[in-house]
Amino acid sequence: MKRFLTGLHFFIGIGAIAGGSAAVINPINPMGMPVSALAHSPFTSFLIPGLFLVVGIGIVNLLAGAVFLILPDKWCYSSGVSGVILMAWIVIQCIMLQNVNILHVIFGGFGILITLLALREAVKMRIFPINLLFEK
Predict the structure, then answer these.
(1) Of 8, 17, 101, 114, which is the most buried if we count CB atoms within 10 A?
(2) Per the UniProt record, which residue ranges are transmembrane (predicted)?
(3) What is the dihedral of CA 16, 21, 27, 30, to 10 degrees?
């Protein structure tokens, strides 16, 4: 499971950095996405969403993957945080774009999976804050 999650974090991180970089480099029409898609959002270009995609999803997931390798007993913290951020990103993106496509479903599912696996591990290890539930 840890290898799978490490790979998933690196996959999501690299993909987010690639997609976010495209939005930063060409904030008006990244990868063929017209700026008109942002009509129901507070943004007039893809620059800010692209920066968040690079940092908030890309770098956070690369760091979460690195934690598996560097601090294997603390991975559930970084995975849990990255999973929650990914889920929030997908929900906010769907609301702002007023559109749901298969990639939203897939990456939203990845966020749910990562978060649930991290939570399961935290419960199993009884680490903070989960350990508070088990104190008498």
Answers:
(1) 114
(2) 46-70, 77-96, 102-119
(3) -70
- Taking CA 52 as the corner, what is the angle to CA 85 and CA 71, rounded to the nearest 5 degrees? 50
Q: Is the dihedral of CA 119, 73, 3, 13 positive or negative?
A: positive
**Omega before residue 42 within 30° of 0, cis:** no
**Which amino acid is it at 24?**
V
Per-residue pLDDT of the chain (136 residues; tens, 9 = 90+): 888 999 999 999 999 999 999 999 999 999 999 999 999 999 999 999 999 999 999 999 999 999 988 988 888 889 999 999 999 999 999 999 999 999 999 999 999 999 999 998 888 887 777 777 766 6
Q: Which two tokens stand for residue 8?
A: 């998933």
Rounded Cα distance between 98 and 18, Å, is: 23
